[in-house]
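Reagents: none. Just compute today. MULTIHEME_CYTC domain-containing protein.
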Amino acid sequence: MRILGLCISLWFGSVLAACSPLPDSQAPSQNTAADHKPPRQVLIVYSGNTLGELKPCGCAKEEDQGGIERRMGYLNSVVPKESNLLLVDLGDNFKESTRQGRIKARYLMAAMSEMGYDAVTLGDRDLLYGNEFLKKQDSIPWLASNMELEGMNPPRTRIKTFDDGLRVAVLAVADPNLFYVSDHGGLTMQDPAEAVKHLLPEIERTEHPDLVLLLSHMEREKALKLLDLDGVDVVINGHIENESDQIDMQPVVRGHKIFMQAAPLGQKMGELRVLIDGGNKKIFQQRMVRLDSKIPDDKKMTALHDAYDQEIEALFFETLKAKRTKDRTQVYATESTCKTCHAAAHETWEGTRHAHAYATLKAVNKSFDPECLQCHTTGFEKPGGFISEIDTPELKNVQCEMCHGPRLDHSQAPQGGFAPEARQACSQCHVRKHSPNFNYKTYWPKIQH
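Predicted 3D structure written out:
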């Protein structure tokens, strides 16, 4: 057995945790059936915390990761090579209760259905559009070990048996506090640890799993405690408050068990390879795979995203009709007026990327996307602000008043005192996924005026 364990370790290369063999007094007999089982392995691939990111916006090279096209491209390269593969998601796939957010959610669910997930955890954000929306996603393998949803009946456990006989039991629990704070209706939840303690004995008795995987949706420190539960081998956690959250993705090894967390915004896929020898000794190898431009886009997912773009464009023109009938009292002076008194500042502005922000949207066919327009135009979705390049061409780009606020009144009766507001305005658009290296002290000299 010791020789076999050494060979397995050398074969794996970079081993994070190898479970030590039992002492001789506890070791199974050399004549048991377990000793004659060949080594087997499973690759657990995990995602989570997507928050509706169907495709990275491309504003910053450092954050140009993720998206359904690359996720499927990655899976296309991995699935054919792995005979034992388990694909799971940790939840928080949705972001906000807007029409565009709901459309994104629908397309993301269609994408994940095509990807062939084995289990998907229900996060608190996943109830954003209600139980009825989730019920319609009947091709998604929802898993909920400690919750009951009115009108839904997701299984409490999932067992996957591979062709070589390897059996993996999967459970998924979530922190009730996350759900009750959000006031989700029709929901009953049990303490996560108690739910697992209740389910595991029956699973062990009837299914005899070789590996028990627990998916959790909660804060990291709470999830780490689940690693102490008897019978649990692997815990993978997911939960994100907002898109700028930093997530610790370093694995934690405790004894013969391992804990990991999913990456933010679906930017990386996690891989955990588990090798189990004939004596049920487990060896873990974990890594995170960046879904960057090196990953080829999947054509089917590209077509799906194109369909999403078409629907968002239709939504844009639908809302445009309503905006044209609303009160359009002018409150913005526009950059052409500002330059009459601030010629030097205007000249500096013209040389910055702010002055050409709208053109970058046109170049990638995103000039109809509300989520992009709010940071590439002046006053979009605000009274008197940008509507469209036909209706309000004078408000294209990131103009003076994006930082200094609507100043038509100032242009008519000049007075100072509003410059300090500009610094606070930067944080509205220069968030982590758009400007991961943003620092006011280093960025300000580029546009100083």
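Residues 1-34 have pLDDT under 50 and may be disordered.
Action item: order primers for follow-up constructs.
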